[in-house]
Write a structure and sequence with these properties.
There is one protein chain. The chain has 6 helices and 3 strands. It has 150 residues and is α+β, with helices and mostly antiparallel strands. The protein has one domain: Carbonic anhydrase (Beta-carbonic Anhydrase, Chain A). Helix 3 packs across helix 4. It is globular, with a radius of gyration of 16 Å. It binds zinc ion. Zinc ion binds next to helix 3.
Length: 150
């Protein structure tokens, strides 16, 4: 479902970046910075989703030594650091559930620790970074705790 419909917004109201595995690459970080500094965006939502194929690929690479085509491998490498705490003894389904949430937190963490966000938080400027998981099974968005520090 498009984020505009999910959050009851009109087209053009949200600055949406749709990326496999909600990754923070250099270009994504630049777009986030742009939206904050030039468009006045003050709320950043990192929205993962149940059953994410990119997280699944990263888990397979980590736990089953699966190999992926080069560019997917690059995606997997951006996700992997966020999966460090995932218990290898969980079932594949449990790993994916935990991995999706861990990957949202990892993306949030990467944004929060950027110098401009740290400065904005120090200045108590209007900025909030929150994480959520879109549950395909219920159609609902489950909010995670917000992270205010790096
Ligand atoms: Zn996905």
């Amino acid at each position: 479902m498009p984020p505009e419909l999910l959050f009851d917004q009109s087209f053009g109201d949200l600055f949406v970046m749709r990326l496999a595995g909600n990754i923070i690459s250099a270009g994504v970080a630049g777009s986030i910075q742009y939206s904050y500094q030039h468009l006045g965006v003050s709320l950043l939502v990192v929205l993962g989703h149940e059953g994410c194929g990119a997280v699944k690929a990263a888990l397979a690479a980590r736990f089953q030594r699966a190999t992926h085509p080069e560019r997917i491998q690059k995606l997997v490498e951006l996700i992997d650091p966020g999966l460090e705490q995932i218990d290898p003894n969980l079932s594949a389904a449990e790993q994916l559930e935990a991995g999706v949430e861990a990957n949202v937190r990892w993306s949030m963490h990467q944004v929060v620790r950027t110098p401009e966000v740290q400065q904005a938080l120090r200045d108590a400027r209007n900025i909030l970074i929150v994480g959520a998981v879109y549950e395909l099974s219920t159609g609902k968005v489950r909010w995670l705790d917000s992270e205010r520090k790096g």
